[in-house]
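Entry: Dihydrolipoyl dehydrogenase family protein
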Amino acid sequence: MLTTDICVIGAGAGGLSVAAGAAQMGARVVLVEGGEMGGDCLNAGCVPSKALIAAARAAEAQRRGFPGIAPQDPRIDFAAVRDHVAAVIAGIAPMDSQARFEGLGCTVIRAMARFTSPREVAAGGYRIRARRFVLATGSRPVVPEIAGIEATPYLTNETIFALRDRPRHLVILGGGPVGIELAQAHRRLGSEVTVIEAATALGREDPEAAALVLDQLRAEGVRLIEGQAVVRLAGGAEGIEATLADGTGVGGSHLLLATGRRAALEGLGLTEAGIAHTAQGVTVTPGLRTTNRRVYAVGDVTGGPQFTHLAGWQAGIVIRRIVLGLPSRAGPRAIPRVTYTAPELAQVGLTEAEARAVHGERLTVTRAGLAHNDRARTEGLGTGFAKVMVVRGRPVGATIVGPQAGELISLWSLAIAARLKLSAVASTVLPYPTLGEVSKRAAGAYFSPRLFGNPLLRRIVRLIQDRVP
Ligand SMILES: Cc1cc2nc3c(=O)[nH]c(=O)nc-3n(C[C@H](O)[C@H](O)[C@H](O)COP(=O)(O)OP(=O)(O)OC[C@H]3O[C@@H](n4cnc5c(N)ncnc54)[C@H](O)[C@@H]3O)c2cc1C
Ligand SMILES: NC(=O)c1ccc[n+]([C@@H]2O[C@H](COP(=O)([O-])OP(=O)(O)OC[C@H]3O[C@@H](n4cnc5c(N)ncnc54)[C@H](O)[C@@H]3O)[C@@H](O)[C@H]2O)c1
């Protein structure tokens, strides 16, 4: 029997942040992890996907060349790319390791946890009683119910990064961020790629920005089928065959399921613990408390948007509440999201359509294109734009599509979270020449109609000028 202040279940992005913060502030922490330390983001999500995308970008740069630099077909050693992915994970792993967390003072148990009562958890032969529990068990890939799927070999994000042989033809079900990022990466690394999306690819994103990304994927040779459900799957060692609703067959060598992710709730004994939940996730209050007042939840298991930075931010809320005893609520904040394609697509706050639905006539959309950005020109980059949704002089959302959009969105995350006025961005001095100037230009475009061609201002300027000796 272990008794402790806090028992954290799941050592991924959310759980590790809670455990590290709580232990370093002096709380006694038991951390229970049933799989790999670091969870999905480190082992099967953000880190391997971005490492693969970096290799794909290097291959594409060779393929394209540069004015004066001859393009060439990249010679791709897929197994070595896979080694790079593994090396990046190994490089980050010590930060998330059992040894580091034991060094911080946590008791780490490597086993699956299960509530046996509202105040007790069993894991690996231990019984753990804690003042507070934090559920951070993340999410698992959804396996859609399609006829024949049980007899068809398939990959998910949990297995695809282990492939050492390049898939000859990767068929991807699902055109969300997982499907689209991995489609472009594999295409650039030399695979044939077909994406089958039942609805609209990147359907949560601003359609104009998503179109730029999807056009680029098509231009690079990704076959994109939208608005078509797969009704039957078949396959064996030689490959797979998907049959679409209209009867068309799509064949490939490998199948990747990227059809969404669902909260990992199985085997947790939630009912025994009095923790209400739906298939989407654990039910939580704005302060992230479950229906069992001893138990909090953070990250993907709460059924909200699935991002590492959101899990980390929620961890901060829970630490304030259960370690420091301070009130804190996970109220509406500007949570950014980025799809790491080329071009990147970044969003924070409301999209244009969302802002119009909420604010109607009060909304002004201001924008600037990368075509007029000098740094984009010197780099040979050009497509993309920033658009900012403005209500009463303050930004309520920003969409950026283009190179490094994921870096550029930070300014708008700050502006929206701190409720800055748009004039604060327009009057900030930014270094020249940088891609970031696109944000300032978009902010400036909001004011230029008020300054340039304004008849009242023109009359005032005339009066001033006529008085100047
Ligand atoms: C391919 C891919 C790419 C992604 N890229 C990005 C990105 O670029 N940026 C971004 O912000 N997000 C990205 N995400 C999402 C991100 O990975 C998740 O939002 C994040 O990992 C959620 O953290 P978490 O702590 O909730 O869960 P996880 O990190 O999944 O951690 C949960 C942990 O709990 C453990 N666990 C589960 N059940 C039990 C149990 N009963 N007992 C003990 N332990 C248990 C699991 O083994 C796991 O280690 C990506 C996801 C995928 C799949
Ligand atoms: N860059 C990032 O931040 C990043 C990258 C990858 C994943 N993630 C996170 O991981 C989560 C999961 O990503 P995802 O792309 O797997 O899920 P998703 O829910 O975002 O997208 C899944 C897509 O699959 C489609 N779909 C569902 N069933 C289908 C079927 N049977 N056939 C064809 N299409 C089908 C849906 O219409 C949807 O467009 C996301 O919510 C995201 O937050 C984030």
